[in-house]
Amino acid sequence: MATESLLDQQIVLDHGTGARLSRELVEFVVEVLGDVYIGEMEDSAMLPAPSGSIAMTTDSFVVDPPFFGNGDIGKIAVCGTVNDLAVVGAKPLYLTLAMILETGLPIRDLHRALVSLRDTAAEAGVKIVAGDTKVVAPGEADGIFLNTTGIGVFHTPPKRMTDVRPGDRIVLSGPIGNHTVHLLSVREGLGFEKNVLSDCAPLNGLIDSVEAAVPADAVRSMRDVTRGGLSAVLHEYSAALGRKVRVEEAELPIAHETRMAADMLGINPIHCANEGCLALFVDPDSVDIVLKALREHPYGAEAVVVGEVTDQVGKAVELLGRDGRVSEIEELQGAELPRLC
To answer: SS3 of 13, please?
Structure first.
């Protein structure tokens, strides 16, 4: 099999020439992806056109480190793209996969990323329909960069930020900060990564479970809480709505060890990247049933209400402290957190 013959080799520049080594690398990739790849080696994927509207998103992944305790760049690439489709109400169907590989990358590492990508795509129920590979010289990439484009279809009306109303509750599907702390701990050798795992997960199954259990307009809008953290999501909504949003410090789901590690690293979990946390803006009359539906799914077991959209005009994110005082959560500027992705 092509897989076994390449595993102990490294990426070389000739893997990007379009000649025999390129063909062998493509065959290797296709073999590893297996049934989740439905391309036919034509220059374009030929897919049935769905009726109605489609959703489309694209993202690039430059994760540092690319391989970590309970995940890797391949898993994140699928989760990031699938989640971006699912939170606007689309059913994810197809992904493209483009890879930039640095000369010297062990093909065993590429294999690991592809296996993870394949397994996550299978869990999310999406197919890889097209791809591309480029090889660059040493020092021109951090081993492996990935780009994915996703396509989904709408079976219900899209969910938009502007559908959110004053009084709607802000619900988080799980803890914040774990992904950032896990990766920084791996990078710095702090040891927290053994107990603080990344939350990286495809969330479309969780969203489907919630949508099936609640009235159509119970969940007004959703966002996956990724780069920039919960703070970035809340600032985005406040700006779009022209309303202040408020969260309660005592309700923020931050694991004890995550808080300890964040304090040691000098970072605030509310600004930390996540890869499997969902923020939902929910009709107050439907909060209990939404929480129940979330908590019945493995990826939403620790769901909690953290705040609400106020009726106060303005663009601000407020924090109600444990002492009852209200302060403003400032939006980060520049590179105040280390780059993870």
So the answer is: helix
135 and 201 fall within a common domain: no
- 171 and 319, same domain (yes or no): yes
Q: What sections of the chain are H helices per DSSP?
A: 2-6, 20-33, 73-86, 107-124, 178-188, 204-213, 229-241, 256-265, 287-295
In which domain, by residue range, is 206 found?
161-328
What digits encode the pLDDT tens for the residues 288-336?
A: 999 999 999 999 999 999 999 999 999 999 999 999 999 999 988 765 5
CA distance 275 to 182: 12
Q: Is 0.90 topped by the overall pTM?
A: yes
Q: Are residues 148 and 190 in the same domain?
A: no
Residue (of 49, 46, 47, 53) closest to 91 by Cα position: 53
Name the domain boundary from 137, 154, 171: 154
* Residue 29 belongs to domain with CATH number: 3.30.1330.10
d(Cα 15, Cα 37) in Å, to the nearest integer? 21
Of residues 217, 213, 185, the one with CA closest to residue 300: 213
Q: How many folded domains does the chain comprise?
A: 2
Interatomic CA distance for residues 290 and 282, integer angstroms:
8
Amino acid at 170: I
